[in-house]
Each structure stands twice: as C-alpha cells, then as structure tokens.
Amino acid sequence: MSNYSIKHFEEYFQVYRKSIRDPELFWEEIAEEHFVWRKRWNSVLKWDFKKPEIKWFGGAQLNITENCIDRHLRTKGDKTAIIFEPNNPNEEALHISYKELHDRVTRMSNVLKDKGVKKGDRVCIYLPMIPELAVALLACARIGAIHSVVFAGFSSTALSSRINDSECKVIITSDGSYRGSKTIDLKGIVDDALEKCPCVETALVVKRINSEITMKKGRDLWLQPLLDQAIPHCEPEIMEAEDPLFILYTSGSTGKPKGMVHSTAGYMIYSAYTFKNIFNYKDPDVYWCTADIGWITGHSYIVYGPLANGATTLMFEGVPSYPDFGRFWEIVEKHKVNQLYTAPTAIRALAKENISFIENHDLSSLKVLGSVGEPINEEAWHWYNDNVGKKKSPIVDTWWQTETGGIMISPIPYCTPTKPTYATLPFPGIQPALMDEHGVEIKGNQVDGRLCIKFPWPSIARTIWGDHQRYKETYFTAYKDMYFTGDGALRDEVGYYRITGRVDDVIIVSGHNLGTAPIEDSINEHPAVAESAIVGFPHDVKGNALYGFVTLKETGESRVHENLRKEINQIITEHIGPIAKLDKIQFVTGLPKTRSGKIMRRILRKIAGNDINNLGDTSTLLNPEVVDDIIKGAL
Ligand code: WTA
Question: Domain named AMP-dependent synthetase/ligase: which ranges (predicted)?
C-alpha cells in the first residue's frame, strides 16, 4: 500500500483510516518520502483550536521552490513545466521546461532582491494569466517574500485596500491584458490604486499588450530589461516550516476582505498530495486548470501542487468564448490535455452553446474532469460527463476553500464511485462533522447540517493577516473546537457528502465569493441611496446572481431609476469590480426589519427567488407593511 498514490477504493479506506488513527505518522511518512528538506522537523503537529494555533512540521526548514523546481532538474530538466496558451489562438503557445523555469524564477528573484525585497516582505502581484505570473509567485517564494496575488479583474479601490492591508513594498503588474477581443488597461488601474498606497516603492511592469502607458519616475520600471541583466542563479532562502508563503484575500460576510495567510511546509505537502491523487497525475500527462492564479484554485492547482509533482501544467490567458465557444475544446485537442479542471459556471455557459463546438474536436486525451467553486447542479454534471468525458472520464467534484488551501472532499478518480452533485468522501486526513444549530454534532447518515472540520490538516490557513482575533471569531467560535466552513452539507445513506451552499452572507456568483456587506457599503455611498440589502437568486449560468433592494433618500420617478441603476452598478465596479455588479435592482420604500433593526434577508431572499408562498411569519417585523409592496414591485 502506498499512502501517496491511492489506486483503488479499498485502498482509499485503508489510507483514510490510517490518516485518522495516527495523523502524525501518516503525514510524517508523506513528508519524508516525497519532499526535500534542509532540516528535519522536531514535531509533526502542535495545535489548539481554542487559541487558535496550528503548527505543522515545527523546526523543519525548506524552500518550496526547491521542491517545485530544483529537484526536478536532474531527471526532468527538459520536461515542460508550463505550457502557456495565449489569448489569441494565432499567437504561438510557449513550452517552458523545468530548466527554463529555473532560469526565469532565479532571474526574477534577483530583480526583487535588487529592489530591496527581503524575507518576510510582502509583494503584490496584479497580472494577467501570463507566464510571468507563475514565475512571480515562485520568485517571491524563492527569496522568502510573501506574495499577495490580487485577481486582475478587481478595481483600483479593491487593489489599493489589499495592498495597504498587507503593506506591500513592491507590485508586479503589466501594461495591460488581453481578454477575448478586448484589452484591459491594468497599468491605469494600478496607477489609480497606488495614489493611495504610500507603502509601494517599486512597480515592476511586464510588457504584454504594447500599449501607451505612463511610467512614474523613481517608481515604475519595465521588468524585461532587468530580467535580461539579472543572473540565472539564486540560492533559495531557507524558510521555517511555518513561515508564511502567501496571503490571499477572500470575501467575508462582513467588513473588509480577509487576508488568509498560508504557511510553507504544510501547504506544500497538502497541495502536492491532493493534486497527485485527485487528478490521478502520471508522467507525462498534460494537466489544465482553467482557473485564474488570482484565486486559490490557481495557487494550489496551477502552480504549487502540479510543480511539486513535476507535472506539466497549462496556463490559459483567454476566455472560453474567444474567438468562439470552441476555444476550450480546441486547447484540449491541441495540447492533448489529460486532466481538465474547471468551474460549474463555465460548464453551464458552454452547455448553452451548439454541441458542434465540441464535436469538431478530438477530446479523447481526457482522463479526469474536475469541478470546483460552487455546487455543480445535476444537469451540468451530466452534460460534462456525457459530452466532454464521453462517460469514460470520472468527474471529481472537489469541495474546498481559500482557507483550506487544498481540496478537502472529493472523489479519487478510478477509485471512488461518483454520484452527480456529490463531492463524495473526505480526503485522507480530513475529518468532517455536521453540526446542528445548538452546536451538537449530528452523527449517522442521511442527515444534514453545518459543515465543520474536527482536526487540523496541513494546509489550513494559519491566521488572517493582521487580525488573528477575526480569524478566531470567523472560524473557531461558532462550534467548540471545530473549524467552521460557512457551508451547509448533507450526508447520504452511504456517507457521501453533498455541499448545499453557504449558510452565511457570502454569495457565490460564477464561482466567485462575494460578501454582501462590502457591496452594500459601496452602494450606500451613492448620494441618492438611503439603504440597501443584497441577496442572491438562482441564475442558470452564474449559479447565483445578485439582487439589490434599495431605498432612496427621496423617491423619484421611474425614469430616474434607470439612470440610478447604471450609477449603482458603476459604483460597485469602481469599488469592487465588474464581478460584483447587480443583475436586478429594485427600489423599495423600506426594507423588512426585525424589532432590533436587523434586515430580514431571509424574506428578501425568498422574494428574489420568486418563492413568495412561504415567507414564514412576517408579523413580528417592525414594518410588516413593506413586504407586500416589495412583492408587488419584484423584478
Ligand atoms: C464553494 C474555492 C460546492 C463553497 C476553492 C466554499 C463549493 C466556497 C465547491 C469557497 C464544490 C467550492 N461544491 N460548493 N465542489 N467548491 N465551493 O474560497 O461554498 O473561492 O465555501 O475557494 O466555494 O470558495 P473559495
């Protein structure tokens, strides 16, 4: 039996049982056999969910880039590490070997060092999906700097608040980005953001679209000439196991985004181990995850997990619809992709298009299909299985979170029998629990509750940057001695899990987490708006879309409302980004409130979802009369 590579269902159970019986021994064996260390650990695990404090492999020293690059050079130096497929299909794809990746990463490491970046400093990365993005992460990791990638679809306000929160010293960006037939002025967004970021000393700019941009003297530098001058050798910084590797912001149900901090050793082990098993990766497979590296999926399953396994990982710069809806299938055929990892929202969008887009391409290389980011509905699951996998590629519906660092509940392909809409079983080392509203664990099968995790796993986020108290309150307070996920789940008769969705005020739109509070806060800044409440409602492509109920300081005519709708979405785009735009905006005379003044979102959610026959008891509201008005005006 090999713990590292699980081959059949019985073996999964054996490995799982072992991981629960003696977690320390289990993870220690994996750490020992599959990674390179500069110094061995003193203890495998120390933890206390009350504080909370979690330490894996304390005392060990390593550098993650030695594990992701250097150690492969001898045996796989010429193997392709990264395939870069550009936005424009007529531009040539790049095949970057492990040797070349080493060259690029060490050069960029030296550029960063030259700009004064030291171990522990934060570097913001705001780049499109081009090779420099992956290289930038690894260059930071090489020199011990903490990277904070901000998805390049966020607005300048969102960018500046993230830069300031973690006080980044340097930002790596580009002149612009390609997105289908459009170009986006990334540097302009960065310039706006940096006006509010005194902490940033240097902006390193990649030339991608050759646009006219302004370079601020003393701050902005073109990256390429610096890379050309740098030497392709850089000793890796020796890191402690628990040193932070990166910060990645995720939306919370309240307040500002949470900078989740991931540490080095545990994250490396868990992302690598899950990658190997959940994608059944075997040399020389070509693996493609369509996520953006701006999200956790890209960190763990485009960069670190695949490279730690010496895999070939494909990065795609573009969008599924350009030049037409056959683009994904063209890429699968062209690069003979073996594992495809994408999101339900992309599957639903592609399923709406003519089937000939798929039929024109040879997809026979595919062996495993992955799904992530939100619950996959039955129809999308079957469409994916029938048309993309031709019923012979298992679907791995992977449940996890930015906070968990790696996949937590998922089938193992060719091992776990799949079941549509079910993420199935916990990965080795993961101990899920379903809890009732009184904080009691619900045992047995055919039950549902709130999903918690009872025991630490190596890649759990260690804190929220600068706010450990918030970390404790958000994840470790609702249920005693448990990590609370914020999701609801059910467990079927054989123990398979199905994630039913968020139970807090986070709404998942097209696979992106959006907190309602920051959106409401930005709308409320419009001078005409008195108050607002955002809820989600079902949408056939995005999964959920956003519905805003807005009260105005003075009620105007409906003619004005159209303009107001545009202005509100404009404000949201400026504060957060276009992903948070509202699909529907209803102007109402009042929002339903409890006697203590809290907005009753439950009622608004039902109205938005057109489920008005069971609104429950509204008589206890402070203002029950508004409910009928809202129903009458519902969009
Ligand atoms: C949701 C993405 C159902 C869930 C990796 C979680 C899912 C949130 C699934 C985290 C899935 C993710 N089935 N729901 N397979 N995967 N989710 O932080 O609500 O962007 O809490 O991490 O996405 O989103 P995040």
Answer: 70-461
Q: Is the predicted pLDDT of residue 599 greater than 90, yes or no?
A: no
The pLDDT, as a whole number, for residue 596 is 73
Ligand 1 close to Cβ of residue 499 (< 6 A): yes
Residue nearest to atom 6 of ligand 1 (CA): 401
Q: Whose CA is nearest to atom 13 of ligand 1?
A: 375
Q: Is the CB of 402 under 6 A from ligand 1?
A: yes
374 C-beta closer than 6 A to ligand 1: yes
Q: Nearest CA to 352 among 578, 542, 545, 584? A: 542
Question: How do residues 216-237 score in pLDDT, each as one tens digit?
Answer: 999 999 999 999 999 999 999 9
34-46 pLDDT, tens digit each = 999 999 999 999 9
- Both structure tokens of 615: 């609104």
Task: Note the CATH number of domain 42-489.
Answer: 3.40.50.12780
- Which atom of ligand 1 lies nearest, measured to the CA of 402? 18
Q: Describe the strand order of the beta sheet including 529-539 as a list of residue ranges.
A: 529-539, 543-552, 584-588
Average pLDDT of the chain is 95
pTM over 0.90: yes
Domain 510-633: CATH superfamily is ANL, C-terminal domain (3.30.300.30)
428 lines ligand 1 (CB under 6 A): no
Ligand 1 atom having least distance to the Cα of 485: 21
With 70 as the cut, is the pLDDT of residue 340 above it?
Answer: yes
* 252 close to ligand 1 (CB < 6 Angstrom): no
Per-domain residue ranges for the chain? 42-489, 510-633
233/157 Cα distance (integer angstroms): 37
